[in-house]
Amino acid sequence: MSRIAYVNGRYLPQPEAAVNIEDRGYQFGDGIYEVVHLYDGRFVDEDLHLDRLERSLREIALPMPMARAALRQVLREVARRNRVTEGLLYMQVTRGVARREHAFPAKPVPPALVVTIKRIPPYPAAVDRWGAAAITQPDLRWARCDIKTVNLLPNCLARQAAKEQGAIEAVLYDPATEMVTEGAATSFWIVDEHGTIRVRHLDHAILPGCTRAALIAELRQAGIPFETRAFSLEEMRRAREAFLTSATSFVKPIVKIDGRPVGDGQVGPVVRQLFDIFARHVKGGLKNAA
């Protein structure tokens, strides 16, 4: 059966789905997107993703394409029509179709909405086979990385560099200060040389990751100490453990960076514990989020 996409009010087989060539998302990257993990028929951290979608849209003065309740129905209908219970849902909102001009349309046009979904392998049963390698790359993105815009060319170039070196992620850093920002498509964490779990503080330089927020809520609930404090490349190289979080990475151990082992090059005890905590979260939903 052909995959079904939602495109501006219609459910279509994906080979027939299309957007206008003057859609501003296509011509300018004038749009916002979200990716949500569907587990056992339930969207994981759905409210966090929808909250972030609405915030990103506000930041670029773009209205929601429909009320949140209606959007929830569309997401569920796309999953139902594709018979997907374990997968990744992609939604994108753009400023719509207008004659090509850099400024916003003088007469507002309806926002455009596209939703697709694809099956993915189930959440990994064991963390030991989940470890991976990363590389470092200078962060060449724009100054508002807190907005989840569809402008992802620097991220794509960084990810391609990682792929060419046999890695799954590029850890980005400010070339002026050598302070780590985040992964090209993930939040990046370390367990530093003193055993402290650390992730960079939120500001305009990084995306407020939904999985990051969900894991922080779980850490607080479990009474596990952590710090939202920036760290340098040098601190990263001295770290005992490192890991990624995202809707697609969950809690993913990084055991090698730039060809060098992180710690002893094995999945460490802290990441092992956090992997188990987040696995329970995925299966049971966010509780007592802060």
From TrEMBL:
SUPFAM superfamilies named in the record: D-aminoacid aminotransferase-like PLP-dependent enzymes
Cofactor: pyridoxal 5'-phosphate
CDD domains recorded: D-AAT_like
Keyword ATP-binding part of the UniProt annotation: no
Similarity section: Belongs to the class-IV pyridoxal-phosphate-dependent aminotransferase family.
Coiled-coil regions, chain positions: none
Protein name as it appears in the record: Probable branched-chain-amino-acid aminotransferase
KW Transferase (keyword) present: yes
This protein's pathway: Amino-acid biosynthesis; L-leucine biosynthesis; L-leucine from 3-methyl-2-oxobutanoate: step 4/4; Amino-acid biosynthesis; L-isoleucine biosynthesis; L-isoleucine from 2-oxobutanoate: step 4/4; Amino-acid biosynthesis; L-valine biosynthesis; L-valine from pyruvate: step 4/4
One function term, GO molecular function aspect: branched-chain-amino-acid transaminase activity
EC number(s) per entry: 2.6.1.42
Domain of life: Bacteria
Physiological role: Acts on leucine, isoleucine and valine.
Keywords assigned by UniProt, alphabetized: Amino-acid biosynthesis, Aminotransferase, Branched-chain amino acid biosynthesis, Pyridoxal phosphate, Transferase
